[in-house]
Amino acid sequence: MSIGTFSYPLPVNEPVLNYAPGSKEREQLKVTLATLKAETLDIPMYIGSEQVFTKNKISIHPPHERKYTLGQFSMGDKKHVQQAIDAALAAKEKWAALSWESRAGIFLKAADLIATKYRFHMNGTTMLGQSKNAYQAEIDSACEIIDFLRFNVHFLSEIYKQQPISGPGMHNRLEYRPLEGFVLAVTPFNFTAIGGNLPTSAAMCGNVVVWKPANTQVYSAQMFMRILKEAGLPDGVINLIYVNGPELGEVCFSHRDFAGVHFTGSTGVFNTMWETIGKNIGRYKSYPRIVGETGGKDFVIAHKSADPAVVATALLRGAFEFQGQKCSAASRAYIPSNIAKEVKKKLVEGINSFKMGMVEDFSNFINAVIDERSFDKIKNYIDKAKKDKDASILAGGSCDKKNGYFIQPTVIETTNPQYLTMCEEIFGPVLTLYVYPASAFEKTLDLVNNTSPYALTGAIISTDRAAVELATRKLENAAGNFYINDKPTGAVVGQQPFGGGRASGTNDKAGFILNLYRWLSARTIKETFNPPTDYKYPFLAED
Ligand SMILES: NC(=O)c1ccc[n+]([C@@H]2O[C@H](COP(=O)([O-])OP(=O)(O)OC[C@H]3O[C@@H](n4cnc5c(N)ncnc54)[C@H](O)[C@@H]3O)[C@@H](O)[C@H]2O)c1
Ligand SMILES: N[C@@H](CCC=O)C(=O)O
């Protein structure tokens, strides 16, 4: 029981360490990488108070060093999904009854543990398991996850403060209950922070959670889970399991206590989930909350007034950081004819200067893509572009999976604005560029708006204020995150709430106050102090 109203002020974003040569953090991270590589982990699922091992072991290899083994994890099946749901429901009552300050304290402590004791372990497991360079790991598995935890505590405390007014003789209040049942969190491979945020944002609101990360993110996910336990998260509040998607769906989406899904991943998987939930709608106790942030085909459009150096830099960073495996990555560029030659030259120079290789070598800007399936898919798009008449390779184009899944950052130039790689999400280091007549800016904005089903991120690069305004207006629904004179990636918690519409998701803005409302179910309570004792209104009295 609380005996005070406690305050959780707006935090400041966790400072990003730069890992420059000679810095203390660079040295500490290198030591941690070596330590992690020296041990071979046997990773369990975390169900209730149990660490569950199975005979079905999956080995973990760094995507950039296929032959190396970091450890193995125990793959579960439908039985483990059911056990995780049972453990969650068993923990529910106590967790929901725990005071807000105690719940908040657990997540704030986890944030502090990551900022200090475990920063290099979070970054190291992300670098080795997902092939991120030190800087990309730092902004994800340290800073963004810390920010998610601290900002969500602040946002939730702001929600709890929102109360209705009370007329004379009564008091009205609003309780923000957790959902009735359990929440399922299904998370993608590409951001350790998303893996951390999806289960904790729901749990913070008093919910209990079954969390299934992508198999290719288990190495960093288990690190985060261990930190949550050390921070004092009670058993059963978040249950971490590794099972295949359809088996997970079969058990969770037919369960009467299924209360909601917090998903980030591809549009196809989300559509399948939505369809299954729709078919089963009569089975549930309540209407489930369905929250999903999904794919993107993110654009950069330059205006004829743009500085070619600004355009090329936005593309080099926006399209190729973390091998283009960000839902926000620039993957289609519309360049006006007057600056096209200069932009292309700078793009080619930039790509030729990129170093690609292992994450342990800090001079590598580019590392490997996540796995063989992804490598093959991306390579197919590049191979096709090499053959197609309306496409050509402007830069990059080579792929090699002998030692690791390396795809050279590639720019495809097309004369067809509806070319395949202008429309479909590739999720790799491939940018497609289309040169438009500099005089046809407004018409090209329509093209940008209508070319892909997605609406996640996009950018306008221009020094002409009227052009910026026109693009902002005409592309109003083409992106949930719209950038002016910047790359379309790198949203920061608390600064650029993130998410998109159309086929890119429900746009519930992860890491922002809007998202937290989805994990709460309000109850209005009215108390009358002097209840009436006669049903008759005064006007019924005779004159
Ligand atoms: N919009 C965003 O905020 C955002 C952020 C990150 C990634 N993404 C998107 O995620 C995708 C890349 O990540 P990914 O390859 O891990 O995505 P994915 O859709 O393949 O997998 C996401 C999660 O869903 C699980 N899954 C797969 N099939 C399932 C099924 N039938 N039922 C239940 N779960 C299932 C996976 O195991 C994984 O845990 C891209 O499309 C990217 O745009 C979007
Ligand atoms: N929020 C991240 C993208 C997350 C998806 O992969 C960004 O803004 O770049």
From TrEMBL:
Q: Which family does it belong to?
A: Belongs to the aldehyde dehydrogenase family.
What gene is this protein translated from?
pruA
Q: Highest taxon of the source?
A: Bacteria
Q: Which reaction does it catalyse?
A: L-glutamate 5-semialdehyde + NAD(+) + H2O = L-glutamate + NADH + 2 H(+)
Keyword check for Oxidoreductase, yes or no.
yes
| Keyword field | NAD, Oxidoreductase, Proline metabolism
UniProt keyword annotation of Oxidoreductase present? yes
Pathway assignment: Amino-acid degradation; L-proline degradation into L-glutamate; L-glutamate from L-proline: step 2/2
Under Enzyme Commission nomenclature, its number is 1.2.1.88
Which residue numbers delimit the Aldehyde dehydrogenase domain? Answer: 57-511
Which source organism?
A: Niabella yanshanensis
What GO molecular function annotation could you give as one example from this UniProt entry?
L-glutamate gamma-semialdehyde dehydrogenase activity
Question: What enzyme category does the UniProt record give?
Answer: oxidoreductase
Catalytic residues as annotated in Swiss-Prot or TrEMBL: E293
Protein name as annotated: L-glutamate gamma-semialdehyde dehydrogenase
Which PROSITE patterns does the entry link to? Answer: ALDEHYDE_DEHYDR_CYS, ALDEHYDE_DEHYDR_GLU
UniProt cross-references to CDD domains, sorted A to Z: ALDH_F4-17_P5CDH
